[in-house]
Specification:
This protein has 267 residues and is α/β, with parallel strands linked by helices. It has ten helices and eight strands. It has two domains: 157 residues, NAD(P)-binding Rossmann-like Domain (Rossmann fold), CATH 3.40.50; 97 residues, Orthogonal Bundle (N-(1-d-carboxylethyl)-l-norvaline Dehydrogenase, domain 2), CATH 1.10.1040. Strand 4, helix 3 and strand 5 form a beta-alpha-beta unit. 25% of the residues are buried.
Length: 267
Amino acid sequence: MGAKMEKIALIGAGKVGKTLALAFQRAGFNPSIFVRQLSAQYRIFSQENNLRVDVLDNMDKDADLYLICVSDKNIPEVAASLAAQHLQKNAIIAHTAGGQSLEKLTNLWENSGVFYPLQTFSEGRKVDFQQLPFCINGANQTVIDSLCDLAKSIGNGVNVRVISEEERAKLHVGAVFVNNFTNYLFAVAQQFCQQESIDFNLLLPLMQETVDKVKDNPLNISQLQTGAAARGDLNTIAKHSELLQKYPQWANLYQFLTEQILAFYQK
């Protein structure tokens, strides 16, 4: 059974911190956000959502959970700062990063954990927590149970998973492929269309159908591949390459990805 968790202190008011704070608030918890320096933006967010946002110097010492929601490179510094303060002994210190190890916390605090919401967070975008997977780990079973209970309280219990460090690291690599890399390709396509005076919006239904097909056939994604490279249509590939000649960087990207697809499907 997890420890009782009502008072939550989130460190960092970025997209992850603000989104989680509001989710905790809706679920009946008492969250506060603490930042290095208050800004007008943070004050407005606080007033609009009736949620406390304060500076780290005023951070409560009696919270049940201290959730670090900062960039990966700043996690060790924030964790060390928290561990040096006189927090209640049973408090949990956890971070939300997919690519950072639990060890960064266990070396500093006995009750440490990872509370990783596997999703991309953006300003102004609502997150459907019923669809969002939570990947949980902890230094001991009490921490794991507590973080799992917390995730279930704001999401769908079916999507709450306890996973190892190795599994989470591999999931994070997968997340880079399906989100970061695909978004970059969308951006390249948009810039190409803009350069060539083509309406990029005409591609939006195709983008949506691509994602919908994957959702409908998650076990057979490789069989969904279409296009010139999958068919081995070298004439079309040559035409595309010619159109990209004046954009060397994009031409190289097109060539690399085409060669990868050809190698995969033309065995």
